Amino acid sequence: MPCLLGIDLGTQSVKTAVMDDQCAVLAVAQAEYPIHTPRVGWAEQDPQEWWKAACETIARAVAEAGIAADEVKAVGLSGQMHGTVCIDREGLPVRPAIIWADGRSAAEVDVLVAEVGRGRVGQLTANPLAAGFMAATVRWLLRHEHDTIWHTNSLLLPKDYIRLRLTRQIATDVSDAAGTLLFDVAHRRWSDEMVALVGIDPALLPRVVESHEPCGTLTRRAARDTGLHAGTPVVAGGGDQPVGAVGNGVLDPGTILSTIGTGGQLLTPLAEPRYDPELRTHTFCHAVPDRWFAMGAILNAGLCLRWLRDQVFAGLGLDYDALAAEAAAVEPGAEGLLFLPYLLGERTPHMDARARGVFFGLALRHGRGHIIRAVMEGVALAMRDALEVFRSFGVATQRIIAAGGGARNDLWRQIQADVLGAPLVSVATAEPAACGAAVLAGVGTGIFPSAQHAAGRLGRVRHATDPVPANAERYDQLFPLFRSLYPRLKDAYRELGDT
Asked: Which of 184, 240, 352, 385 is the catalytic position?
């Protein structure tokens, strides 16, 4: 039986899925790894930990699927976007990877925008420049770790490090390259002008292909490490958001994908590369040809609930279901407690790496359930902030598909529907980014005629969640207050960062 394998290198874990040629998911395996924070606002990971987790999940997924290694006909990749992996001539990491959640390059962003002009950055890349993107991170490395750049032979995105280990090939795809802020999104190629302005040697950047194109085959060493067969084709894959959109069947304009994972994203496909003139959202290349997508990205979503579980309520033995049960006992609005979910700064719509989390309205009456619910509601309110930006430049909200861990939790899904004021449809795709990567592998090797053909089989509706009118009214009352808090605190965030 011909099968496909998709690897999704997430921020907190890697997930590997095995799918047959009828789009049935046979197995999914997951392995976690930490985010290292050597300083406040920094976020790093060890690429070797990624590889170890990928090898473990590949072997486990194939075993759980009950198939032989030679039945895996192709491998696809998906991964966290924007991060920077510096590789030497031997293919080894020069330093820990600096990932998307890292805010150390905020000052470099300010300098670059002052030098280039915000409008010119938008013209060149269709995006705002933000900390954590490769352009800003490399500028920081040039200033603070020049030896790192001196020893770097290639600059890779996270999932491209996994491809390097699988195939010894250096490459990336258009959807992930678009998130570097070194890319001409409209023409799907590196931006020579932006590369020069940042000060990067163009030779450090990998070749770029479309997401379904093959990029090498498994080496003998990778075959030993993973249990797969040497010579198995590996396709380019893409960033986790566009590849997850493939897995959820979000390929054409008119549909919005709302994802609450570690971060939160609203994504809608575009037939042409339009972008917000105020640069509050992102426009990237989709993982299918001749498509782009607009995306509102918030940095802190599921990460906030994990922080609450692991840091604030450490030692209590509470899992996510227990947290949700306590939050469900509290009325919508958490009796006036609001949470700004800016633990690692924020992107849409503020683009401010200096922003920090805030509980506003905390009173003696508030208990653990109020705090949990305020965190869940704060994430949903931040997502609505992004949705309002979409609406401001004419993006229709005809259909919203919910995805990520926030879609699997009944309470959080209801909160999203109530806050966004629209029905949310959940689809039955298990691990859409890993499955989308498998779909792209199938397209690249001719097993599927197109991503649209395969995604139509994957994206079956599971259920819909309608907003509760009384809850939606309560959140409509709270949203203007929530939205007003960041402008009031913006200068204070900067002062705090300077102390």
From this structure: 240
